[in-house]
Amino acid sequence: MILIDDKKISSFVSEKVVKSISNKASDAYLQLVNRSGKGNEFLGWLDLPNPEITSGIQNKINSVANRLRSQSEIVVIIGIGGSYLGARAAIEALGNNMMYLNAERGKPAVIYAGNHISEDYLFDLLKLLDKKDYSIVVISKSGTTTEPAIAFRVLKSHCEKKYGKDNSISRIVAITDEKKGALRKLADDEGYDTFVIPDDVGGRFSVLTPVGLLPIAIAGFDIDKLCKGALDMRNICLNDNNPQTNQALKYVIARNSLYSSGYKIELMVNYLPSLVYFTEWWKQLYGESEGKENKGLFPAGVSFSTDLHSMGQYIQQGERHLFETMIWVENSKHEMKVPYDESNIDGLNFLSGKRFNEVNEKAFIGTTLAHLDGGVPIIKLRIPEMNEYYLGQLIYFFEFACAISGYVIDVNPFDQPGVEDYKKNMFAMLNKPGYESLRDELNKRI
Ligand code: PA5
Predict the structure, then answer these.
(1) pLDDT tens per residue, range 245-304
(2) What pLDDT shows up at residue 104?
């Protein structure tokens, strides 16, 4: 089970603040579970996974995933933001760190596109796809998001040239709205297999829908175990409002007590390179849910011990406005020991025979104490190991805590009005019809 340890924040927050935030968190918890808070039309994720709703979908996901796996050395997942990050977070957290080099038909590598606008990236990807068998999963709830839509134009055309239009149909799968949007129409017209993103589930809360589950299954992971972990966490989160036993509530109280005490940045710290994208997923979840109305913790991330050699200086001695949430995975998947070296030129024979995980753990403990001494409060989150079951727990845990945190600071955690501003300007600058006056206004300011 996931465990939160908040003992190392007590010298940074007053009891009065913790009490006041605890009261707010209790109210926020009720708003969420009674579905009476802001944005409550987007609470579909709260019920996921629900075996009654999702088991049929899981069977279809596994069957489509098996087809794509058997015919591909590469599966390209096209999507951005909530239509991309959850899948990548899970696949990298669970996966073989060298998966790109080990890919073969039947065990395809998952590669991403449509999550930026880099021309060179697409060029390089097409060169690779010229030589490999591949399939495409295109994911967009609205169906009109620029980045994935233009990447899909390119990849669809490449796929049809390579395999022929008819044969491409079994190589392209779309995940989108049930009825509306450009991608829904295109997929229905072309006859692609499709999966539905429920109306009441926003992008960043969608990893337990086909948006996350299909790519995760394609990568070869057991989505039934992932859903079981999420379901067990859901049962705890929805039925237990005691912050001592409901770890999500404990996390909410700890992070918001620190926020109220002047710590404005939450640094998610992991000790495994495979968790870098888990942090990216978490950053979107919390940044897009809380960062509005001039409020919200700024979610940032570092990966240790890598970043102790780059960001470590700032964290130890820079401005004191940040705290860390450290994820520690107790057990690694494989065992590796530091070898003995006769010459001992590097003076490191005192480590020989020790497991790398033990060295990493001492780095974790040593860093915790150093950062505490430097004035950085630390919340610790421990999980026994990184497998499908615990990852499922972790996903639901962070989603649930995020929603309550949003209510604690009195914002709607389920909208993202600010994201539209860059899009309007970009469309105006690209001469989209209807944006002429904004274009003229922006041109004067350049
Ligand atoms: O969380 C969100 O709502 C966003 O990050 C969206 O997922 C992202 O903008 C992609 O949108 P769409 O799935 O409509 O292409």
Answers:
(1) 899 999 999 999 999 999 999 999 999 999 999 999 999 999 999 999 999 999 999 999
(2) 87
- Which residue owns the Cα nearest ligand 1 atom 15? 140
Residue indicated by tokens 């309007």: 424
Over residues 128-186, the pLDDT tens digits come to 999 999 999 999 998 889 999 999 999 999 999 999 999 999 999 999 999 999 999 99
145 in ligand 1 pocket by Cβ < 6 Å?
Answer: yes
Q: Read off the DSSP letter of residue 7.
A: G
Query: Cα(341)–Cα(355) distance, rounded to whole angstroms?
Result: 15
419: CA distance to ligand 1 center in Å? 10
Task: Using the mean position of ligand 1's atoms as its centre, give its distance from the Cα of residue 416 in Å.
Answer: 10
Buried/exposed 85-119: b ≥16 CB within 10 Å, e otherwise: bbbbbbbbbbbbeebeeebeeeebbbbbbbbeeee
Q: Under a CB-based contact definition with an 8 Å cutoff, are residues 276 and 27 in contact? A: no
Give the list of residues 6+ apart from residue 287 with CB closer than 8 angstroms, or none: 296, 298, 299
- Ligand 1 binding pocket includes 141 (Cβ within 6 Å): yes
Question: Which residues, including other chains, have CB under 8 Å from residue 209's CB and lie 6 or more apart?
Answer: 48, 195, 197, 198, 201
Half-sphere exposure of 418 (CA within 13 A, CB side): 12
